[in-house]
């Protein structure tokens, strides 16, 4: 008879060869897909703390589910509730090595008003660049991340962990380009994880270029995992309706096509009932017969490619809870 094997990812053991203590420890380790409550802080190697564009302190995350920074997910993996440790994060795993290609020297005739060394400028991409040098006829800008090339030290403690499906609920929305909508939900209280993807189509495993062709039937969407003890589905609907025009057919703003159509895609009868009331109130308030925004049961959701996940956070926009900086959707 083949022996029975148990345990989560990275935690596999032969049942007959381990004692009860080892078995319990293994099964309590944080695994990919778990929701973990952690407390962590970051500092440079010389001990200086610094701000990030994502939250520090006490946070919740779905391990391996995006958001925050990959090094936090990697550190928490296989830890146990109550365990704490210090982790050194090399530049390549933190904010990247310094890249001299992310600099430019420009003529003073292109300067946006009065500038000096240290002035922060916003590029057309939405990224921020710092003026690092000036001469009589030119100035140099640098849009490397502030901590590019810097090693970090992270103190992290796992406070609690559970299987995500036992704690969190799922909601799915489409509202034009998924980059901006995802960042809006990243900032929302009670939202633990977000991912960009493709919903309500007829082609399996579509690519971004296929969806953009308008031939797969999908719309760009955001799937949200939220903690119902901290936020309500109606709160998510309020955020969603504040981020899109429910009267625009097959598009949002300058993004036009069926792949940018808006929709609320409910996962259960409770969400359906809340959404139907929300739609009815919107229709009444706007004095319309109906909204262009779809209201349907969610069909299969496909994750978008990695480069689209938390895209605006990666570009330097503020993903901290309740941040108020204007969301700029660029690409």
TrEMBL record:
<dbReference type="Pfam" id="PF00254">
    <property type="entry name" value="FKBP_C"/>
</dbReference>
<comment type="similarity">
    <text>Belongs to the MsrA Met sulfoxide reductase family.</text>
</comment>
<dbReference type="GO" id="GO:0008113">
    <property type="term" value="F:peptide-methionine (S)-S-oxide reductase activity"/>
</dbReference>
<dbReference type="GO" id="GO:0003755">
    <property type="term" value="F:peptidyl-prolyl cis-trans isomerase activity"/>
</dbReference>
<dbReference type="GO" id="GO:0033744">
    <property type="term" value="F:L-methionine:thioredoxin-disulfide S-oxidoreductase activity"/>
</dbReference>
<dbReference type="InterPro" id="IPR046357">
    <property type="entry name" value="PPIase_dom_sf"/>
</dbReference>
<keyword id="KW-0697">Rotamase</keyword>
<dbReference type="GO" id="GO:0005737">
    <property type="term" value="C:cytoplasm"/>
</dbReference>
<feature type="domain" description="PPIase FKBP-type">
    <location>
        <begin position="33"/>
        <end position="127"/>
    </location>
</feature>
<keyword id="KW-0560">Oxidoreductase</keyword>
<keyword id="KW-0413">Isomerase</keyword>
<dbReference type="GO" id="GO:0034599">
    <property type="term" value="P:cellular response to oxidative stress"/>
</dbReference>
<dbReference type="InterPro" id="IPR050162">
    <property type="entry name" value="MsrA_MetSO_reductase"/>
</dbReference>
<protein>
    <recommendedName>
        <fullName>peptidylprolyl isomerase</fullName>
        <ecNumber>5.2.1.8</ecNumber>
    </recommendedName>
</protein>
<dbReference type="InterPro" id="IPR002569">
    <property type="entry name" value="Met_Sox_Rdtase_MsrA_dom"/>
</dbReference>
<dbReference type="Pfam" id="PF01625">
    <property type="entry name" value="PMSR"/>
</dbReference>
<dbReference type="InterPro" id="IPR001179">
    <property type="entry name" value="PPIase_FKBP_dom"/>
</dbReference>
<dbReference type="InterPro" id="IPR036509">
    <property type="entry name" value="Met_Sox_Rdtase_MsrA_sf"/>
</dbReference>
């Amino acid at each position: 008879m083949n022996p029975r094997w148990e345990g989560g990812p990275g935690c596999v053991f032969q049942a007959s060869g381990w004692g009860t203590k080892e078995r319990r420890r293994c099964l309590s380790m944080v695994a990919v897909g778990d929701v973990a409550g952690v407390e962590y802080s970051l500092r440079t190697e010389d001990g200086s703390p610094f701000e990030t564009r994502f939250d520090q302190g006490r946070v919740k995350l779905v391990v391996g589910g995006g958001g925050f920074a990959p090094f936090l997910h990697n550190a928490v993996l296989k830890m146990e509730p109550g365990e704490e440790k210090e982790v050194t994060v090399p530049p390549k795993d933190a904010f990247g090595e310094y890249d001299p290609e992310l600099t430019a020297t420009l003529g003073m005739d292109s300067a946006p008003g009065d500038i000096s060394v240290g002035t922060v400028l916003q590029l057309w991409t939405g990224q921020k660049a710092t003026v690092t040098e000036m001469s009589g006829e030119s100035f140099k800008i640098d849009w490397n991340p502030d901590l590019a090339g810097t090693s970090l030290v992270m103190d992290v403690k796992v406070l609690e962990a559970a299987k995500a499906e036992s704690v969190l609920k799922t909601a799915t929305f489409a509202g034009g380009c998924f980059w901006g909508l995802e960042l809006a939900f990243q900032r929302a209280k009670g939202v633990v994880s977000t991912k960009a993807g493709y919903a309500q189509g007829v082609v399996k495993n579509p690519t971004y270029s296929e969806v953009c062709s308008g031939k797969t039937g999908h719309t760009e969407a955001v799937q949200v995992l939220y903690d119902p003890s901290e936020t309500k589905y109606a709160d998510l609907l309020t955020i969603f309706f504040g981020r899109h025009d429910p009267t625009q057919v097959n598009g949002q703003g300058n993004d036009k096509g069926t792949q940018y159509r808006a929709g609320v895609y409910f996962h259960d009868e409770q969400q359906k009932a809340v959404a139907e009331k929300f739609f009815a109130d919107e229709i009444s308030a706007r004095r319309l017969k109906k909204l262009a925004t779809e209201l349907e049961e969610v069909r299969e959701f496909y994750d978008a490619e990695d480069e689209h996940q938390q895209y605006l956070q990666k570009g330097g926009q503020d993903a901290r809870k309740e941040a108020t900086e204007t969301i700029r959707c660029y690409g």
